[in-house]
Design goal:
269 residues; alpha/beta; TIM Barrel
Length: 269
């Protein structure tokens, strides 16, 4: 198993900070620009990366990230090209945890174990399969274990005790804590108080919780950390910056840099 998440959370604890983790879709709006975008996220102070492999039917995502998938697919982005790009990121940034968010079909199509092997070889630390709940994850967990990748699971706000117990038992690296049910999107503001959920997951021995869905301001990052989360993930907000500046890459990268720097400030306790 990769130790990068454990190392990250230990380092942040010493600094009295939480983690800020941006999400982008690989290859949006092109592979060449995507590599620069991801380098910019790291330069801005991202503590870890959450990257999506483009898919034609991203059911867990709202319109912003669906559009990012379309842009990437239209640019001819394929899983092998994504893996190649990840390998380049890993070479340039040896210590940052790299998590992938993808859909089961991508793994099935490529052969689950063969696919995980390629991801591990490229330097991936964790995989979250968006459309497979913990309770149905056995074959993915087996492939992850064999290849040394952390299996990450979603803890929804309406989860029952059985679900939380499975998320805690099976999860590694971090726990993706949903601030509300539904699809991703910064336009939907983070929902119900998460304190009881974080406390219960901690009692059950789950990996550190990162709060996702609807995170777009430093204040929301701070609120998540104040509520006991180890940090926050923001996807739709950085992807909207990409979308708004597709024709002006320099402006896009400059805005992303400032966005990441500001969001990271929200993690200081």
């Amino acid at each position: 198993m990769s130790q990068r998440y454990q190392q990250l959370f230990a380092d942040l604890k010493q600094k009295n900070q939480g983690a800020f983790v941006p999400f982008v879709t690989i290859g949006d709006p092109s592979l060449e620009l995507s590599a620069k975008i991801i380098d910019t996220l790291v330069e801005g102070g991202a503590d870890a990366l959450e990257l999506g492999i483009p898919f034609s039917d991203p059911v867990a995502d709202g319109p912003t990230i669906q559009a990012a998938n379309v842009r990437a697919l239209n640019a001819g982005v394929t899983p092998p090209k994504c893996i190649e790009l990840i390998a380049g990121i890993r070479k340039r940034h040896p210590d940052i945890p790299i998590g992938l968010l993808l859909y089961a079909n991508l793994a099935y199509t490529n052969g689950i174990e063969a696919f995980y092997t390629k991801l591990a070889d490229a330097g991936v630390d964790s995989v979250l399969i968006a459309d497979v709940p913990a309770i149905e994850s056995a074959q993915f967990r087996a492939a992850a274990k064999k290849t040394g990748i952390d299996s990450v699971f979603i803890a929804p706000p309406n989860a029952n005790e059985d679900t939380l117990a499975k998320v805690a038992e099976y999860g590694q690296g971090y726990t993706y804590l949903l601030s509300r049910a539904g699809v991703t999107g910064a336009e939907n503001v983070a929902g119900k108080p998460i304190v009881p959920l974080v406390n219960r997951l901690t009692e059950l021995g789950a990996p550190p919780c990162l709060l996702g869905f609807g995170i777009s301001t430093p204040e929301q990052v701070k609120d998540a950390i104040d509520a006991g989360a180890a940090g926050a993930i923001s996807g739709s907000a950085p992807v909207r910056i990409i979308e708004a500046n597709v024709d002006d890459p320099e402006k896009m990268l400059a805005e992303l840099l400032v966005f990441i720097q500001n969001m990271k400030k929200g993690t200081h306790k």
